[in-house]
Amino acid sequence: MPASDYLESQVLGHLFGASSWSKPTTLWLAALTTTPEDTGGLVEVSAAEYVRLQYDPSDSNWLLQADGSRINAAALSFAEPTTDWGTVTAIALYDAETGGNLLVYQLLDDAKTLTAGGPLLMFQPGALSWKMNSY
Predict the structure, then answer these.
(1) How confident is the model over 13-38, as pLDDT tens digits?
(2) In the structure, what pLDDT confidence band is assigned to residue 11 with cuts at 50, 70 and 90?
(3) Residue 108 · residue 129 · CB < 8 Å
(4) DSSP labels for the chain?
(5) Which of 43, 71, 99, 102 is deepest in the core (most CB within 10 A)?
(6) For 70, phi and psi rounded to 5 degrees?
């Protein structure tokens, strides 16, 4: 699970420095059409009907696994594409519904091309797995 430079800076400042960081109270799942890097370089889907999905931090939403990872407890579905969205190659978590700070991102095992009237971008329970140091 690659972390953004923003998140790394916040956590390290909190752990080693005098700064304090409070985790976000809301998390927003975004669909990306480029492969991001922790310094940026990402492109989010741009369509009138597209919105990020809110899926907040909690032990009931993100289930702890034996290996220390967290998985989504519920199915997560983006809006139905009424226009072409392009090919989604990654997902990301942000701390805001729009704009905000990129926290982490994850490449999809299989890129998904989304077209008008086509299937939804959906993740079944357990399909999203986030783990620190997963390299």
Answers:
(1) 888 988 888 889 999 999 999 977 76
(2) confident
(3) no
(4) -PBPHHHHHHHHHHHHSS---PPPS--EEEEESS--BTTB---B---TT--PEE----TTTEEE-TTS-EEESS-EEPPPPSS--EEEEEEEEESSSSS--EEEEEEEEEEEEE-TTS---EE-TT--EE-TT--
(5) 102
(6) -120, 135
